[in-house]
Design goal:
By secondary structure, the chain is mainly α. The chain has one domain. The chain contains 4 helices and no strands. 1% of the residues are buried. The model has no long low-confidence stretch (mean pLDDT 72).
Length: 69
């Protein structure tokens, strides 16, 4: 078996799944941060979104990430 899959066998599939989900959630947090920064008129499409939606998205995803650990 190649080295890229040996880590999965050592940690187990459930642990690997949890790690993948955690990394995905962290990616969503960074994306929502970029969307919040985009409200500063960097992108006109993003600027049409409300601050309320973006801040709630950021806080919910951040809370889920830290509750998972």
């Amino acid at each position: 078996m190649s080295d890229e899959y040996s880590n999965v066998l050592n940690r187990g599939y459930l642990q690997e799944f949890k790690t993948s989900v955690r990394n995905g959630v962290k990616t969503v947090i960074l994306l929502s941060l970029v969307l919040i920064l985009g409200k500063c008129r960097f992108l006109s499409d993003i600027s049409s979104m409300s601050y309320y939606f973006l801040f709630n998205l950021f806080w919910v995803v951040a809370a889920l990430t830290f509750l998972e650990e």
